[in-house]
């Protein structure tokens, strides 16, 4: 009887160990199946991947279509960006210079005044030389005529003129004459009589009094310093 008891205990232990081993294997299989199920449900299905890729392709295509103008929009924009033939011709008309305005009437040159002049001639005597000057028809020349005959001691200036200042003033109408010729008789300001014996250009303004048709020998007769000059009417 005492020998049977240990054998029974051994059998019970074997059965208990077998039960524990089977339980642990069952728990391991359960855990593995749980992990597999979780991976299955967490991984996207093949159809879901295809649907997601299709949506991405559709978004890229729509973005590209918004960046690249369609052929129809390009053809529509071309006429508006290119000026029409009528617009080009109109633009050319606006760039043409305006029609030239008629030139203002020019004052008569001294040559024409000579033909119309009715003023008397004036003799200008320097030493034993005599020169004839024609007066312009203006108030300044008439005021000079009223003083003739007149002998003046005229001073030298600039190597091209002789001048004399009167104590009284003359009526004046000064203008820029630009070009002066030998033999010109002019008034500078309102009281300075000037007789030019050389031709040159000037920026000064004078009132024209008269001119010589022939001024040959005038410079030599007047000399370099002060000179006595007599003015008198002819005839």
| Multimer state | single chain
* Measured distance between first and last alpha carbons: 199 Å
Count of helical segments?
A: 7
The beta-strand count equals 11
Structural class: alpha+beta
Reported for the largest beta sheet, the result is: 8 strands, antiparallel, barrel
Taking pLDDT < 50 over at least 5 consecutive residues as the criterion, the unreliable ranges are 20-27, 30-47, 63-108
Rounded to an integer in angstroms, the radius of gyration calculated over CA atoms is 62 Å
Proportion of residues in β-strands: 15-25%
Share in helix: 40-55%
In spatial order, strands of the major sheet run 1-2-10-7-8-4-3-11
The gross shape turns out to be elongated
What are the secondary-structure elements, in order, as H or E?
Answer: HHHHHEEHEEEEEEEEHE
Q: How much is the average pLDDT?
A: 72
